[in-house]
Write a structure and sequence with these properties.
The protein is an all-alpha fold. Helix 6 runs antiparallel to helix 7, helix 8 packs antiparallel against helix 12 and helix 14 crosses helix 15. Among the domains are: about 110 residues, Endonuclease Iii, domain 2 (Orthogonal Bundle), CATH 1.10.1670.40; about 80 residues, Endonuclease III, domain 1. It contains 18 helices and no strands. About 30% of the residues are buried.
Length: about 325
């Protein structure tokens, strides 16, 4: 919070001896110019010439308040900075190239174990905020849930064709596509219903790009989890990779858990509480730290083989 400061001239008037004299004395004895030059300027001023009047004394300029966003928080660290970032509208908090580089510089100093990875791989451009359709990105995420990437890509291409779309889906096009056409594209009946529910949320205005841009992370999670087929993990991935949210810690992601286990030499996969504790030093850039966990060379047979996402549960 910035405190408002009074101008220096206000302090001089109240602190001077003239301010304590009776008004009558001040009127009876007007102040005399201190120098001949001042007398000349005073006489010129009394003649009523605007051009000859001296300029008013310079007033101390107040600094304009600055927006509290990622650029203004680059030097701030810890829970305080993270708290502010987490409650910013997502359109303001999204990572840019400058803030992403600053995040990497900060993490390399805050966590020496991350420094070699950051030096080797550099800033992860995939975490930069995107401007594309939230609907199209979320719809693709639903199609790809629990499928191998190659198979999911084939099915997604068929879904685009079934909806008469070329590059990305739109809510209207998906709602207009017959369920049978979506099923022939390779979607299960459940996934097809998930996509239709997502399209309905965007079509009737419960969700939109503009509304999502104004949400903070908590509001986003609450809104997206109202859609069938979208859970916390999908919400975390969308916040990180589409919106560029800087401080997401996907505690349900198996790859991040394995990376932490390998990087910190843990005997078991860390649970959510352990992950929070380990990643505290990363705040307010836990998204960036989490990304590098996917790049840690973790043994395939590391302890804790339970899948982060189980069938039948929202992703």
């Amino acid at each position: 919070m910035q405190l408002r400061k009074r101008g220096i001239y206000g302090f001089v008037r109240r602190g001077s001896s003239a301010a304590t004299e009776p008004a009558s004395a001040a009127a009876a004895a007007p102040a005399l110019p201190a120098t001949p030059q001042a007398a000349t300027e005073a006489a010129a001023g009394s003649a009523g010439s605007d051009d000859a009047s001296p300029p008013p004394p310079p007033r101390k300029q107040r600094k304009a308040p600055q927006d509290i966003g990622i650029p203004g928080l680059l030097l701030g660290t810890g829970a305080g900075a993270a708290e502010v970032i987490d409650h910013l509208p997502l359109q303001e908090a999204g990572l840019t190239r400058d803030s992403l580089q600053a995040a990497c510089d900060f993490l390399a100093k805050a966590d020496p174990k991350l420094a070699p990875l950051i030096q080797q791989l550099g800033p992860p451009d995939r975490l930069l905020a995107k401007r594309g359709s939230n609907f199209a990105t979320l719809a693709k995420a639903i199609v790809f849930q629990q499928l191998a990437t190659t198979a999911a890509a084939v099915i997604y291409g068929r879904v685009l064709a079934a909806c008469s779309c070329t590059e990305s889906l739109s809510p209207a096009a998906l709602l207009a596509a017959p369920l049978a056409a979506l099923r022939r594209a390779g979607l299960s009946e459940r996934k097809a219903s998930y996509l239709q529910d997502l399209a309905a949320h965007f079509n009737d205005g419960r969700l939109s790009d503009a509304k999502i841009a104004e949400m903070d992370e908590e509001a986003l999670e609450k809104a997206l989890c109202q859609v069938r087929g979208i859970g916390v993990w999908t919400c975390h991935m969308h916040a990180m990779f589409h919106l560029g949210s800087p401080d997401v810690l996907p505690t349900g992601d198996l790859g991040v858990r394995r990376g932490m286990q390998a990087l910190y030499g843990l005997k078991e996969l860390p649970d959510a509480a352990a992950m929070e504790a380990l990643a505290e030093k990363w705040r307010p850039f836990r998204s960036v730290g989490s990304y590098f966990m996917w790049k840690v060379e973790a043994p395939r047979g590391s302890a804790g083989g339970k899948k982060g996402r189980q069938k039948g549960k929202k992703a």
